[in-house]
Amino acid sequence: MTASALDISRIRAITLDLDDTLWPIWPTIARAEAVLLDWLAEHAPATRTLHASTAALRALCDRVQQLRPELSCDLGALRRESIRMALQQAGDPPQLAEPAFEVFLAERQRVDLFDDALPALQYLSRRWPVVALSNGNADVHQMGLGHYFHATVSAREAGVPKPDARIFHQAAMAAGVGPDQVLHIGDDAHLDTQGAMQAGMQAVWLNRAGSDWPLGSAQPHATVASLHALPELLTP
Prior knowledge:
Elements: E1 2-3, E2 13-16, H1 25-43, H2 45-50, H3 54-67, H4 75-90, H5 97-108, H6 117-127, E3 130-134, E4 151-154, H7 155-158, H8 165-175, E5 182-186, H9 189-198, E6 202-206, E7 222-224, H10 230-234
Parallel strand pairs: 2-3, 2-5, 3-4, 5-6, 6-7
Antiparallel strand pairs: 1-7
């Protein structure tokens, strides 16, 4: 654990990243894609034959993002449109995109928490209002974690993704405080840590891999290897 200029006395609220901070995201997505492929095999077999792998599904998502850049803030809409494109390419009914997406989304909400996630949520939520701040489409209420959060802000709701300062400012407003009174915690050096600092917040970089800070001189206010380190870091 390292800390440089973290001012604990300023903290009145916490904003917290979700994917890869509280749970590993890619195993979750891979499982949801596998469930989607199984559903397509039953309900849209031509699509399942044409797009026979999770790699093919992700390639379609990339293609839709190129064609529809306005969907970059809404990963759910992006995934739904990629499923619709897959159905159309295979000649299956495109209206199946909605139930297919719902199958994917339900599985996407099943996550395997890191072992430090629940203790951190319990510690943080007892002391400050905690706002979930994510570019993704995780739903903490569906996951049974909603009671730890004062509010949630997503890129879809904000209209911009991290690291845009506006999504951080919206999260501060949801907590009822100014950005300078918020501590943001997240794993992505650019999207989370740098974005929060540029929005006027303090930031803790969750660096599980022990990597070197990749972004030059603008160091995070603190770095932790595990969320287990937060009580020691944040206790005056």
